[in-house]
Each structure stands twice: as structure tokens, then as C-alpha cells.
Amino acid sequence: MCTYAFVHYKLHYACVSCRIGFKRHPRDAGHTCPRCAAPLLCAGHDFAAPRRSDRKAWSVVAAVLGAGLRYEGYEPCGCGRDPKFRPRTRAQVRARRVIAARTGVPLVELLGRADPWEPR
């Protein structure tokens, strides 16, 4: 059965500059941060916001969301049960940036791989 097909769950949105996260219903117009009025970035269904004081973790979130990836644990329809990999530390992001510069593979593709040296 499709997890996300029959119920419209709220999505997680994050403001990286304020380091806060919200759950909102998706809509066509963008959501804005109530603190700074900047547009919120859609983080997906399965985003877990780090503590506000954890600047290093928020820098990783900024890199992942800035690349256009979302934190999704399921396929968009909800059928697939394999969680998608997202980096959790700055060292993982840094290693993927170095590999992207050396090999010419787009950073977006490497941020989604658990092992960046493994070819797709």
C-alpha cells in the first residue's frame, strides 16, 4: 500500500539562517519564515531538524537543501521502504565536494550516495 498516496501529510520546511524547522501543508506559493521573512526550503517528509545550537549540523543541512535534495525516506508514492542516504557530518560533505571536483560528477549526485566512490 502506498504510504503517501491516500493521506496528504505535512512537509517539513526549514529556515537555514534562523536554524528552525516547521511542518506545513504544501501549496503552490512559497512559505516564509516567521522570524526573518525569508523563504523556507522544503526539506521533505522525513527531515529531523538538528538542535538550534548545533551550527555544524545546520551547515550540513544547508549544503543538502542548497543542492536541491530533500530528506525522503520513501519513494514519492510511499511504496519503497529503503531510506535515502543524506550526509550527516561536515566531513562527509567535504569528502563528496573533493570527489566531485576531482571526477567531474555533479555534487548533487554524490550527496545522495552512501559511498561516493561507488559508480552508479
User: Strand fraction band?
Assistant: 5-15%
* Residue windows where pLDDT falls under 50 for at least 5 positions: none
SSE ordering = EEEHHH
Shape: globular
- The assigned structural class equals alpha+beta
Sheet with most strands: 3 strands, antiparallel
Terminal-residue CA separation: 28 Å
Q: Strands of the biggest beta sheet: in what spatial order?
A: 2-1-3
Mean pLDDT: 86
Strand elements, count: 3
Number of helices: 3
- Rg, rounded, reads 15 Å
Q: Classify the helix fraction into a percent range.
A: 25-40%
Organism: Streptomyces lavenduligriseus
Protein name: Deoxyxylulose-5-phosphate synthase
Strand-helix topology:
Blueprint: E1 11-15, E2 20-24, E3 41-44, H1 55-66, H2 90-103, H3 107-111
Antiparallel strand pairs: 1-2, 1-3
Tags for this model:
single chain, 120 residues, alpha+beta, three-stranded antiparallel β-sheet, 3 strands, 26% helix, globular, Deoxyxylulose-5-phosphate synthase
Protein model, in words:
This is Deoxyxylulose-5-phosphate synthase. This protein has 120 residues and is of the alpha+beta class. It is built from three helices and three strands, in the order βββααα. Strands 2-1-3 form a three-stranded antiparallel beta sheet, with no helix packed on it. Strand 1 and strand 2 form a beta hairpin. The model has no long low-confidence stretch (mean pLDDT 86).
